[in-house]
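Worked example 3. Consider a protein that binds D-4-phosphoerythronic acid.
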Amino acid sequence: LTQDELKRIAAYKAVDFVKSGMVLGLGTGSTAKHAVDRIGELLRRGELENIVGIPTSKKTQEQALSLGIPLSDLDSHPVIDLSIDGADEVDPRLNLVKGRGGSLLREKMIEGASKKFVVIVDESKMVKHIGGSKLALPVEVVPFCWEFTAERLRGVMEGYGGCEAKLRFGENGRAFVTDNGNYIVDMYLEKDMGDLRVVSDEILRLPGVVEHGMFLDMASTVIIAGELGVKIKNK
Ligand code: DER
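Given these inputs, the predicted complex is written out as structure tokens:
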């Protein structure tokens, strides 16, 4: 099975949790894309009705619109029944790293407002400690004096083994700009960070920081699709 087939299997399994009449948080990324496609298909076939989607990015909004999924937003629906989204890393306590697709702020707002948050991954996303891999831990920052903020992030991480902090660039060779008009500074940590909650608070206290990609204690369920089948882990 290819990685994309595993992503689709996890996504379709998550959509089994969807009931007619639900307000759904629609995730962003290559795994969540399959879930949104599946929801559109079940609506079209009449197997689901009265669904309202709350998209976590402009990209997902466009995909949902093209599928005819009725859309709304958090202002109209401050409580969401179920959100389905992918993740970049999942640790044994279901803490996540998200945001390598750049949508972490709206994802965290919407998934934080959800009664149930189902994460869908292929098995390659499972890690012992989040932030321990050489992959990016995204931080959304205001564009104003982003270098100052990046330096402050490096300062905070000094106490946790150190990190590189680099501005993310888009395909056009210019700074990547999020749906919210902000920049992303990707942190590459030297080693796993131990107590994540402390790090999380210290990062969020920096004035130029908007949000980071550690989703701690947020996932209710993680669906993991692997070569040997699908595993479901609950909080
Ligand atoms: O950027 C994001 O937050 C995505 O949800 C990411 O965490 C997972 O993307 P993928 O399903 O394409 O791996």
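Take a moment to read the result before moving on. The chain is about 30% helix and 25% strand. The mean pLDDT is 96.
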